[in-house]
Amino acid sequence: MTNDPLAPLLALADVADAVEQARTRFDQALGHRALRRHGGEVVAEVSLRSAVASAALEGRIHEREAVRAGTVTEPVLQGALRVAGALPGLSDLWPKAPRQALAKLHVLAARDLVTDAELGRPVDDPVVAARLDGLAGLVAGGTTVTPLVLAAVVHGELLNLRPFAGPSGVVARGAARLVLLSSGFDPRGLLAVDVGHREREPEYVGAAGAFATGTPDGLRSWLRHYMAAVEVGADQLKVIGDEVLATT
User: Fold this and answer.
1) Angstrom distance (rounded) from CA 59 to CA 85
2) 200 phi/psi in degrees, rounded to 5
């Protein structure tokens, strides 16, 4: 018996296998030789592509090369870029004070999109407040499940709650990446999970809706989607590594 509230998720059909497969795919990608001498370039490209994908999932679709050139000023995309760039600096804060880190993510994501009074402040709803407290408890040591499962739960719960005004999805995706960075699973920020969500967007939307039901089938659907997105993100790391090597 275990008191870990997330442990039962690994007993859902096919979930444990999906988690192991995703972890293996990422481990394999980490062996790419571009990371030996050009790791910084790879990290920067993962960050850029993650931000572009996250903005696209909010309905703001932009060409990656235009974003790279600095010609896109659209505020959701700019917020996604700020979030992506700030994640390494928030990784120490996240497990100690997750609600403070979420507030910082919202300020970064929603600047120029919501009023100053709304920036960094969750909506005034006791149900949302209670759920955020529960989520913060998990992040701050309330579970020992693999970071992949915790990241999926953080992501799904924040998408469901939409606790902040404006682009809550950008905050949710940033928080999920923070789980992976702060836990040591992906300390350099090499896993472009958001690219996986974008490439599988219909599944992403459907699985997020299923997660919101709270049923075993709904949770299973979301977890399986999340692990599939991790695999896409791992494959993206290989693609980026090949491209970096080809230009150096």
Assistant:
1) 21
2) -115, 40
